[in-house]
Write a structure and sequence with these properties.
globular; Aspartate Aminotransferase, domain 1; 6-stranded antiparallel sheet; single chain; 33% helix; 6 strands; alpha+beta
């Protein structure tokens, strides 16, 4: 996945905002909370996302994936896709979509309503 594809995908998710911070990282947020980060590892794009406890255990040892530097070292369940084989683009999109949901569900009900994220 390229940065353009990553940014286009994240932009299409509901109620997202985008900033470049932390030394040029592409940071995507929902309700002001980070759900995915595009960065660089060895001159290759890398993508970081929040996962469930089960997904973290499944993904952390997979080739091309690892516990996200900094975030995982603080006990948070974040995975970084940094090299091949890693995940396919479709799998990566699925995990980023799930990360968006996980982070959005952590927002207050009031905030989710303000963002239009509550089911009718």
């Amino acid at each position: 996945m390229t940065y353009e594809e990553f940014n286009s995908f994240c932009r299409a998710l509901p109620a997202t905002t985008y900033v470049i911070q932390w030394g040029g990282a592409h940071v995507w947020k929902v309700g002001g909370k980070v759900f995915s980060i595009g960065g660089r590892q060895n001159d290759q794009p890398s993508f970081t996302f929040k996962v469930s406890d089960v997904a973290y255990e499944m993904l952390k040892e997979q080739a091309g994936l690892r516990p996200a530097p900094y975030l995982a070292s603080r006990g948070m369940k974040w995975i970084q896709h940094y090299a091949k084989p890693g995940l396919s683009d479709n799998e990566l999109r699925d995990y980023i979509r799930r990360s968006h949901v996980i982070v959005a569900l952590g927002l207050s009900k009031k905030r989710r309503a303000e963002l239009g994220l509550l089911s009718k």
